[in-house]
Amino acid sequence: MSLEASEGSAAVPAWLLNRQHAKAIGEASRKKAAEAAAERESTRRKAPASKLEKEATLSQYPSIPLSEYASDGDHLAINADFPGLRAIHRDPWIFLVSDLLSRAECEELMVKAGPHFQSSSGYSNNFRTSCECRVARHETQRLHARYAKLLNVPVGSLEAAKVSRYRRDEFFRNHVDVLSGTDFLENRIATLFVYLNDCEAGGETRFLSLPSQRSLEYAVGEKVCCLSTGRDVDGEGDYPGVIRAVLEDGSVDVDFDDGDEVARVPRSAVRAYETLEVKPAQGMGVLFFPGYLPSSPKAMRFRNQLDRYTVHEGCVAVDEKWVHQSWVWPSHPQAHYDGVETGAVGL
User: Fold this and answer.
1) Among 161, 153, 163, which residue's Cα sits nearest to residue 190?
2) Measured between alpha carbons, how far is 64 from 86 in angstroms, rounded to an integer?
3) What pLDDT digit, counting tens, does each position of 171-205 carry?
4) Would the pTM count as exceeding 0.90?
5) Residues 21/24/28/33 CA torsion (nearest 10 deg)
6) Measuring CA to CA, how many Å separate 2 from each of 6, 7, 17, 19?
7) Which of 1, 88, 161, 204 is exposed most, by the fewest CB atoms within 10 A?
8) How far apart are CA 84 and CA 97, in angstroms?
9) Kindly report the CA angle at 76 between 189 and 145, in degrees rounded to 5?
10) Residue 70 vs residue 46, higher pLDDT
11) Residues with Cβ < 8 Å from 197, sequence gap 6 or more?
């Protein structure tokens, strides 16, 4: 309706006319702003991986101030100022990196690797049931340069990029990332992997042997963690299990969750533990440190420079899961995996 006075009607005072005009303009402005807000909300809801959704994904994990992170001299010291970095555990340190890869980069890695998959080697089918592919180094130069900035290492310290796929019901049982048969004090000192797709269900990465302040009662059926050898030194990782028997000398027999067992474990070698799960989210990186630096006194304590607290597993997949792994060595990688020439776009 026009704000001007109609012919024959009482004259409208100028001040009221101006106020009505301003009110109309204000209402139109608010309506326009509301429409714009609704459009933004609609766009946000349609976006499969919006900023808010990613923030919500990260909010389910602990957040330790990065100001508390400092090199301990035993593990690789990373770039704590790297964009998107979030600490979710300390002692041992575990980090998430949001948007480490873009959606396009994730999809391109999947395209590269898909035609070249082979069954994962090194484990029996009841331990690991995935497929994998190594990608030629020159095809992932930009990605490796990005990882090197995060990890504070030369590009040459990174293994060739690996891509793994887990179809429904596939898994990777509890394991450590250090390798056997390497040169003295040469092994993997950092693990960085990136989820290439979202998984609504299944496929979580679960850390199985994180330290806990819980007191033990040393009772039959109690959940405990101990070295697979049952000794204080030279083990292959702390694995979860339950106490099967308590012996007269105070030692215990332990049945591990993966079906193995060890007898007469001294109480000093048994401890409480906690677990931590990370759910696959496209583009998100996970970073931890499976082995000690060669310069660390702890590197000589356990086989293969192992940090015993980094035992982890890939939980059974419900949705198909794709993940890209990269590992860091103190010098040049001695796991000589030659990546395949995919002929696809370089990353």
Assistant:
1) 153
2) 7
3) 999 889 998 888 888 899 999 999 999 999 999 99
4) no
5) 90
6) 9, 12, 10, 14
7) 1
8) 5
9) 85
10) 70
11) 106, 110, 280, 282, 320, 321, 322
Strands 131-134 and 261-265: unpaired
What phi and psi values does residue 225 have, to the nearest 5 degrees?
-130, 140
What does the pLDDT average to over 74-86? 97
Tokens of 321: 């899961």
Above 60 in pLDDT, residue 41?
no
Q: 243, 220 in Cβ contact below 8 A?
A: yes
Token pair for 264: 């007469």
Amino acid letter, 182: T
| Residue 53 identity | E
List, in sequence order, every residue forming a beta bridge with 282; answer none if it has no partner. Answer: none
Tokens standing for 194? 């990136």
Q: Is the pLDDT of residue 232 over 60?
A: no
- Using the structure block, give the residue that is written with the tokens 């776009």: 345
- Return the H-helix or E-strand segment holding 239: strand 238-246
